[in-house]
């Protein structure tokens, strides 16, 4: 009897342990309902312009999740034109059906709704979402995403007193609809969480964070702007860099941090100064600004018992035109291989110190003229988004009539004529791809790949050459999903193509992207077993060619 009793307990114990494991890897289910609408009353810069709100908020609500949580967001489009939301840096494992870009999804039409369902699979970190089509990002619709560590994994820093999300980005004073059709419209200033500058007497509001003396805070900073890099700093305070877009960095102390379009970072800040209020500044960087002070975003770090306003001149950052400062800082941002992140084993157990490359793409971002108008290009091709999402075409009609596979030249040294097209390139499943981004422009650029984190192995001047590989850092390159490319320079990354799907590779600069600087990488797993790419979701939207062929599929 006794042994039976013990056995029963053992079984109970094992079963509950297994259930616990299952629940840990499955994550929690999170259900959200969002209504996107145009608001004419917010007027962040005191002019009439439509701002895209979510449930009345600008910026939109936080998605506060934990590794492996299942996110369900029922998105209602209460705007006057089609909508898609994309989840910058969320990898959508085996599931590009939820990526929310024109190549993967039909848009959600005005007056209708669609439910995104995806998992924060094996990820941690700071990210953001934004509307991906029709230049809508310039009107708002963005918001923060946190993927917290599971409690079973120890994080490489003490728990902060509080965490703050800072969505910072340049802002255009005109409506986003005017901006998308008028090449000359440009941003005027930077907003911090949708608010104006503390030192601007005409600003309706400014951002302020309240802290207690002696406590430590985590700031999750993202550049949600359309085209400006910025330098971020807090008067009299140091920042400890800990994370970038889902990987833990070696911890370095900084006076200021350059954040480029589409990037996210976490820094820790100790409230270790005299009780007072201090400026938080994000000023334009590597850009011909007309007035750094009036174009900067200025918020406030407020000590809870302080009665003095932030005062004195704004803290001075590095020379805004100093490229070397920025490049050196970029090179100093390294991965911390010894700590766990989404999984308990160290981040560095999967690394690039000894990999064999299976493909190299050398991609030059540039500006060209087509039909008398300016366009942005990749290797002289300006991408045209078809009405039919590439992913749908791939699934049902082998891409035919929608895109051309592997016609695009992935080597910028091979001269190609300037043209437009819908080109898709094959990425070898489970191969290592070397991506070299060249910037032919005289301004900053930044590149992003959906579906993956990539290892940032090198930054260099001029044209990339095979010998440039000798300068790579293969020991502890940081892993992220958006990387900056300096004017007339190159950046190189490695990516392991273990995630089948149709993946967008784009400039994060909204104007570059809108005018054609993107392409898609198709990663196909020919072996249907054992790990399959997900089938289309049951609520899939149809559009383009699929209105015509609908008949044949369903009758
Ligand atoms: C986010 O979720 C974590 C874990 O469930 C929780 O501890 C934290 O308080 C939440 N934060 C916010 C702002 O909701
Ligand atoms: C639209 O919202 C309703 C609930 O209001 C929900 O039942 C339905 O599944 C949603 N439609 C889609 C396509 O997600
Ligand atoms: C820049 O803007 C600030 C704040 O609006 C103003 O005080 C300053 O005079 C301006 N500087 C120049 C050179 O225009
Ligand atoms: C990279 O992985 C190899 C095993 O493949 C390991 O020996 C090495 O220590 C790792 N490097 C780092 C920096 O963790
Ligand atoms: C590096 O890779 C080569 C070939 O893939 C292999 O033979 C060698 O053992 C690897 N070295 C280490 C240190 O992992
Ligand atoms: C699908 O298209 C590719 C080229 O894009 C072609 O090589 C292949 O044969 C096609 N497959 C079928 C089944 O038509
Ligand atoms: C790119 O093309 C040039 C010129 O033909 C060639 O020398 C080089 O090897 C190619 N690079 C790659 C990575 O294929
Ligand atoms: C793009 O076209 C221009 C002008 O025809 C040419 O000078 C340049 O070399 C081309 N670049 C590429 C990457 O093909």
TrEMBL record:
<dbReference type="GO" id="GO:0016491">
    <property type="term" value="F:oxidoreductase activity"/>
</dbReference>
<dbReference type="Pfam" id="PF07731">
    <property type="entry name" value="Cu-oxidase_2"/>
</dbReference>
<feature type="signal peptide">
    <location>
        <begin position="1"/>
        <end position="27"/>
    </location>
</feature>
<dbReference type="InterPro" id="IPR011706">
    <property type="entry name" value="Cu-oxidase_C"/>
</dbReference>
<keyword id="KW-0325">Glycoprotein</keyword>
<dbReference type="InterPro" id="IPR011707">
    <property type="entry name" value="Cu-oxidase-like_N"/>
</dbReference>
<feature type="domain" description="Plastocyanin-like">
    <location>
        <begin position="168"/>
        <end position="305"/>
    </location>
</feature>
<feature type="domain" description="Plastocyanin-like">
    <location>
        <begin position="405"/>
        <end position="526"/>
    </location>
</feature>
<dbReference type="InterPro" id="IPR001117">
    <property type="entry name" value="Cu-oxidase_2nd"/>
</dbReference>
<dbReference type="GO" id="GO:0005507">
    <property type="term" value="F:copper ion binding"/>
</dbReference>
<comment type="similarity">
    <text>Belongs to the multicopper oxidase family.</text>
</comment>
<keyword id="KW-0732">Signal</keyword>
<dbReference type="Pfam" id="PF00394">
    <property type="entry name" value="Cu-oxidase"/>
</dbReference>
<dbReference type="InterPro" id="IPR045087">
    <property type="entry name" value="Cu-oxidase_fam"/>
</dbReference>
<feature type="domain" description="Plastocyanin-like">
    <location>
        <begin position="45"/>
        <end position="150"/>
    </location>
</feature>
<dbReference type="GO" id="GO:0005886">
    <property type="term" value="C:plasma membrane"/>
</dbReference>
<dbReference type="InterPro" id="IPR008972">
    <property type="entry name" value="Cupredoxin"/>
</dbReference>
<dbReference type="Pfam" id="PF07732">
    <property type="entry name" value="Cu-oxidase_3"/>
</dbReference>
<protein>
    <submittedName>
        <fullName>Oxidase</fullName>
    </submittedName>
</protein>
């Amino acid at each position: 009897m006794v042994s039976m009793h013990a056995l029963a307990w053992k079984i109970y114990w094992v079963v509950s342990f297994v259930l616990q494991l299952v629940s840990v890897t499955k994550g929690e289910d999170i259900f959200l309902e969002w209504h996107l609408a145009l608001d004419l009353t917010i007027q962040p810069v005191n002019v009439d312009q439509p701002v895209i709100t979510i449930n009345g908020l600008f910026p939109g609500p936080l998605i506060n999740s934990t590794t492996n949580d299942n996110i369900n967001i029922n998105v209602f489009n209460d705007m006057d034109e089609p909508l898609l939301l994309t989840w910058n840096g969320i990898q959508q494992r085996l599931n590009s059906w939820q990526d929310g870009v024109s190549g993967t999804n039909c848009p959600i039409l005005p007056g209708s709704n669609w439910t995104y369902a995806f998992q924060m699979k094996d990820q941690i970190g700071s990210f953001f979402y934004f509307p991906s089509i029709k230049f809508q990002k310039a009107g708002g619709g963005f918001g923060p995403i946190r993927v917290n560590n599971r409690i079973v994994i120890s994080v490489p820093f003490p728990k902060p007193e509080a965490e703050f999300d800072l969505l910072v980005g340049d802002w255009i004073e005109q409506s986003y609809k005017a901006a998308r059709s008028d090449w000359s419209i440009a941003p005027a200033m930077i907003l911090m969480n949708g608010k104006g500058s503390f030192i601007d007497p005409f600003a309706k509001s400014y951002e302020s964070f309240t802290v207690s003396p002696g406590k430590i805070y985590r700031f999750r900073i993202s550049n949600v702007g359309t085209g400006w890099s910025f330098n971020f700093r807090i008067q009299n305070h140091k920042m400890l860099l800990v994370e970038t877009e889902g990987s833990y960095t070696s911890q370095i102390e900084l006076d200021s941090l350059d954040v480029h379009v589409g990037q996210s970072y976490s820094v820790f800040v100790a409230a270790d100064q005299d009780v007072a209020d201090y400026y938080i500044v994000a000023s334009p960087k590597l850009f011909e600004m007309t007035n750094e002070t009036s174009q900067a975003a200025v918020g406030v770090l407020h000590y809870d018992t302080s009665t003095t306003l932030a005062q004195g001149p704004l803290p001075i950052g590095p020379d805004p035109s100093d490229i070397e400062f920025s490049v050196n800082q970029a090179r100093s941002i390294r991965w911390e291989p010894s700590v766990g992140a989404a999984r308990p084993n160290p981040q560095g157990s999967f690394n690039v110190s000894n990999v064999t490359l299976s493909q190299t793409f050398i991609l030059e971002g540039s500006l060209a003229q087509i039909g008398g108008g300016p366009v942005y290009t990749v290797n002289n091709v300006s991408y045209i988004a078809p009405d039919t999402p590439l992913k749908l075409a791939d699934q049902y009609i082998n891409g035919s009539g929608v895109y051309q596979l592997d016609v695009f030249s992935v080597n910028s040294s091979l001269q190609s004529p300037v043209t437009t097209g819908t080109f898709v390139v094959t990425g070898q499943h489970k191969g290592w791809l070397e991506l070299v981004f060249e910037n032919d422009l005289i301004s900053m650029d930044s590149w992003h790949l959906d579906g993956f984190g990539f290892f940032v192995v090198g930054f260099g001047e001029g044209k990339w050459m095979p010998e440039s590989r000798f300068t790579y850092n293969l020991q502890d390159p940081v892993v992220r999903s958006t990387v900056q490319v300096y004017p007339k320079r190159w950046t190189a990354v490695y990516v392991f193509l273990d995630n089948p799907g149709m993946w967008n590779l784009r400039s994060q600069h909204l104007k570059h992207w809108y005018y054609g600087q993107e392409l898609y990488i198709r990663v196909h797993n020919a072996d249907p077993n054992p790990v399959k790419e997900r089938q289309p979701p049951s609520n899939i939207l149809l559009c383009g060619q699929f209105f015509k062929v609908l008949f044949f599929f369903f009758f």
